[in-house]
Protein: Single-stranded DNA-binding protein
Amino acid sequence: MNQCTFLGRLTRDPEIRYSSGADQIPIARFTLAVDRWKKKDGESEADFFPCVAFDKKAEFAEKYLYCGIRVLVSGSMKNNNYTNKAGEKVYGVELQANHIDFADGKRDEEDLPEDVQAPPTQNAQASGKTGGTASPSKTSATGNNEGKSSSARASAPNQQGTAPSRTAAGRSSAGRTSSTRRTGNRFSNMPESVEDANNPFN
Structure:
């Protein structure tokens, strides 16, 4: 089974050519740099694989791929043997790309295809949530607050009117407290008619 998947970065922009004949199918060729495991010293090496894409995939590569972008390419390895101008036989192997996927996450909005719409921003969502129906609830809340404030102001005179009665009650209780003598081992309750001058405990 001949199935390969490579994750790497393009070393150059795709090279686009067209096949000879009436159809003139587009052909895109690019080189993919795939990192190896890092060495003990932290340095990493890479292997370079030539890739080729045909027809729609070639048009996709021409439009969206560029030098340095990281992509996931799946396909099969094919022999690319030919004879050069000097008559020498050249042997090579290249990956025929069947699937090309982006590996860098979300792309910029201007890089999206025309039939793909970018998601709305958070500011637009926030403005949509705060508009329209939010104002009546705020108005009703304000009206309730004003109603509570007016009722509180209306009840304020009643509270002020009852304040003297409580003050009088406080004075009467204070009078009762002053008329009560301290009790204990040395003091007892004395009638109010006894004058302080005749009190033997003074």
User: Anything to note?
Assistant: The domain at 4-105 is CATH 2.40.50.140 (OB fold (Dihydrolipoamide Acetyltransferase, E2P)). Confidence is low (pLDDT under 50) at residues 115-188. The beta strands are 4-10, 15-18, 26-35, 46-54, 70-79, 82-83, 89-90, 93-102.
